[in-house]
Amino acid sequence: MTPKSEKSRERMGVEETERGSFLYKDVLPFAAMVLVELMVVSGNTLYKSASANGINSYVFTFYVFFIGFIFILPLPFILHRRTSVPVPPINFSIAGKIFMLSVLMYLSQIFGYIGLKYSSPTLSSIMSNLSPAFTFILAFFFRMESIDFRSNTSQAKIIGTIVSISGAIIATVYSGPSVLSNPISINWIVGGILLASQYFLLAFALVAQAKIMKEYPVDVMVVFVFGISGLFVAGVAGLVMAQDLDAWKLKPNLLLVTILYMGFSSGFLNVVIQIWTLRLKGPVYVAMFKPLTIVIAIVMGVLFLGDLLHLGSVMGGIIITVGFYGVVWGKAKEESPSSIQITAPLLQPHHNLEQGPCIH
């Protein structure tokens, strides 16, 4: 073999390696995050469609927790087989904190489902972009964030928070030109308040999660214990709030499809994808995709639910997105990606927490 042919083969090998690295580190994470946002909005759209035929939110939430837990169940056994390091036991204090985290997550999910009944997946997607702003406020309140009014990063986070909340108010109480002939309904306002409350509780859960992970940094075990406690909370609340046995009966219809889909996608697959993307690309990359849910929700709402697109929703969505990126930019500039994941929950992927926590 001539030296020229050897160099040619080496060059081809380098090109193939670079191509494979590009696909793994750039193309695949991008496609994965788009898929995550698509699955989140698809689940909300399915739920909204199924709710038109009557659906008990408490029963639905229990079944979603149950399906998600089935897929989480093997995780501790996989961890035990893949590591030779003994897993530290979870003490009563940690277990209690994880239980309270599951209560927060359950309430958040219930608020979200009822809010969807009163409003639309589009408004839910708009409100989901409030999570960084709410997390920043709560992290500051619990002294996990510091503010320097002379710093550009602090100014960006403060202004972004104010802008995001302003956009949420506009999207909730203002519908646009049609407000002159068809006033916005009280159901829409109630739905907006419930959805905003959902993401406030999610932000609270992120702050609590960050504190738990400092004390017990074994992510798989935290997810597993959360699954058990979340299922218990959802079961007790469901039995208390839905005593009609007929509400618990499942039939081969759209409701069953929605439960299976959301239990698998939001309760399991989204968690796996986002943990992988977080470790490969960092939290800022994951957070960047959240506003994409607004566009997906608008398209799905118009095509599948017959939703009307109001100017107020468009304006509110744009304003919240601007505020969202303001908060994210401020946090990204303030800290390196590695320290963000450990010291502050601001840029953690809040959308998968809509159905369960993503611990990294």
UniProtKB/TrEMBL annotation:
Its keywords, alphabetically, are: Membrane, Transmembrane, Transmembrane helix
Q: Which Pfam families match?
A: EamA
Q: Which InterPro entries match?
A: EamA_dom, EmrE-like, WAT1-related
**Recorded topology in the membrane:** Multi-pass membrane protein
Cellular localization per UniProt: Membrane
The molecular function terms of the Gene Ontology recorded here are: transmembrane transporter activity
Membrane spanning residue stretches? 21-40, 60-79, 91-114, 126-144, 156-174, 186-208, 220-242, 254-273, 285-305, 311-330
- EamA domain spans which residues? 33-171, 193-328
Q: Choose one Gene Ontology CC annotation of this protein and give it.
A: membrane
| Top-level taxon | Eukaryota
UniProt family annotation: Belongs to the drug/metabolite transporter (DMT) superfamily. Plant drug/metabolite exporter (P-DME) (TC 2.A.7.4) family.
Quote the protein name from its UniProt record.
WAT1-related protein
